[in-house]
Queue: 2 jobs
Job 1
Amino acid sequence: MSETKKLIIVINKNNYGLVDIDGNNVLDCNFENIIQFENDTYAILKDQKYQLYDSQLNLLNKNKFISISYNRNNEYIVSLKRKGNKELYGLINSIGDWIIKPNYIRLKIFKPTDKVWYLCEDFKSITKVYDHNGNILKSWNTENSFYIKYLGEGFFLKTDFHWSKESYDNSYNEKCDIPPNLKCSYSNQIIDIEKNPIDVKVSDNYMDEKFENGVIKIIDNVSLRFYDATFTPFFNSDLYYGEKGSNGFIAIKIFEDSNSFFVNEKCEKQFNRSFLNCEEFKDGYAWVEELDGRKGIIDVSGKFICPSYGKLKEGFGESNYAIVNKSNTNWIINKKGEYILKLSNSYINLTKYNCYIEYHYNKNNDYVTSELKNMKGEILFSRYGFVTFSVTQSKYGVSIWNGENSLIINKNGITKIY
């Protein structure tokens, strides 16, 4: 098997190309966009259509797609053509063969234990559940469905809406999408793949999103609750927020008191302690306000690693650094909590490989100076004008276009300017 090419996406005059990690040209900058997926395959856009290539830049599928997304099962959700104003979605495997033909206006992925399912809806409002091999497991009519959510353990929630006509309103404006003399109610069903649907009573709240392990988050105005697949609540109080961070922990706050805490995706409490306030984790670190009033950054073990009076502005990620606020001043810190560099303004973006980009605007906020700097604050690359840098962060490096030249950075430092 051929060795994977380690390539970096570059931009030249708003066109995209590829170079190797030493900066040598591999694919000229003649393309409208290039997307590098986690498995080192590429979606390359030419004439507003994408084509899919393997790690050696061999064409995987002859079709030209409207969109391509990688789903981590080594498969791709693609849209091949439009019917009316909607794209039609399908699924292809790692060698470019069809698993599900592109006949659906929606295609979503669900992951029961050791399985992968695909929920597909066609133009006739028939929704089907496919398994990993493209076999249909279940189908039902969803013409009046508001949404369908996967609950875990083989269960789906299907919520239907029903319009009931009230007294006629003579002031009704025909340009309105929904007449004010109509009222909407909802009904809900739990759908087991192997059994008949079960009617359930759930309040007419908006279902925001699902978490793994069958944990459901329901939002009603500003409050929310977490439920399991049987709609038993995990907490008996309404919550302020429930943001899932990059490591899967969820930061939540209780309405009735001032406590906040973290739970995992099974809604099990983490760290055996509460906080006055907490924010979601970013790349393994989170900002908290402890019960004793200390404000700062904790790691995934709950250890307090450094003070930060402002919230974590940008996570550590692959740069090994983060931006925090101390006494109304932004600082770059390392993972030991040491303050490395004091920043002169708030317009900062960290990149991979221990660099950051700083933006300086003039009084009218039109002209801007963009500067790439190392962790000593030394300028490596700059641009002045109406537009900022064009930055592309690839798996193996970062490319920055300043309007005239491109700079390539990888783990060995600055590789090339051309």
Job 2
Amino acid sequence: MWPFNKNEEKKRGENRVARTAFRKYKSKYEKGGREIAIYEEKPGKKVEQNNTLIDRSRHLKEFFAAVTRYIPAGKSAVWTWKNLCMSNARIVYTGGSDKQKEMAAKEIEMLGKRIFPIKTSKGNGFDKLLSAWLTGIFRYGRFAGKIELMPGLNGIEKFKILDAFKVYFEKDTYDAYYAEDGFEAVEQNKNTFYYYGLDSDSENPYGIALVEAATKLMQIVNEMFNDMRLSSSNAGTPRLHIKITQPEIMEDENLKDYTERCNNYFGDTVDGMAELAADDNIYTWGDVEIKTVGGENSQGFVWKQNLQSVQEELISAYHLFPWIMGKQFGTTRNWVAAQFDVLMQMVQTMQMEGAAFIDWICNTHLALCGLAEVKVTREMQPPRDIAARDMAMAEKTRLENTEKKMKLGFMEVKQAAREHGYEIVEKKE
């Protein structure tokens, strides 16, 4: 609920929310060649570091960014989560008169064109802001920002995205502070400041990043890839091993001549092998053996198993399943359907949080515009249900079975309607 003093609301056709929720001080603003006094937000009090709750993930910001940018499984997980939650949506207006709803729709449309801070990015500003929100949540486990108001506090100008790792929460009160430079943490206005932490609680209001559960795992991944590289360069490349049987010494042949003959024979064989073209064949006496060494199939299989285990753990840290990221690790179709239901429950939870964020911005803007009676709700459409066809076929089979029971006299119409959750509609003559 917006904590304004309703007794101080100003009337101008429709209710306009009072400005007392913002700390006020006068400043000069030029308009039409003249200077007028406007209200701006006054900086709040500061807090000492020892009076804030400990954030155990603050030093892992660069690690979170690196995993989700340079590790394929981490990048794919964030991309997958964001696109799962970014389903189609529509804005619903409730309360107020038809004229007020029409005015509210125009205000929200104009706000959507300027709300996103990156002006070179075209398209719906609310969708892009929600996309940035989802990226921050799934990459860092937190998102922070604040709304910037128009001169005169008659609406929202834009939303400013802040570094969520510079937010501090005071002990006991849980008041939010933001440190712009160094540790000069300044208290934030609850009516304009926004912060969301994934899986936050009273002990850790900062939130927990999904990949935080895999910090030790990533060290293993780095070592494994390095070992794979070295192993592939050494034993992973197949090579020819040529064995030349040492010739026997001849009668009346001294040691010097014998050694020279062996070396010449060995050198001639090596030179002949070195000059082989791709379509040439090898002709030798029976004293030459040629084998292939290195690059055995078992070596690649071991690395594949190890890498698959690491990927499964990393995907689990992101609360996803291998098949959703295009990796088939032997999951059956029935198990996939069960996992899909769990996944959609998590998607709907995140969609509710994201929609609440957009609703807060829109309703705040309408309140400042004098349209406080109109409320905005962003309704997110759930992703396509892969089990919808199976459920429809099952319902069809149930109805056919019920119909047969009725024809055989095993069931009355009223009983059949109750079993299927329907009410009997009397036909009008």
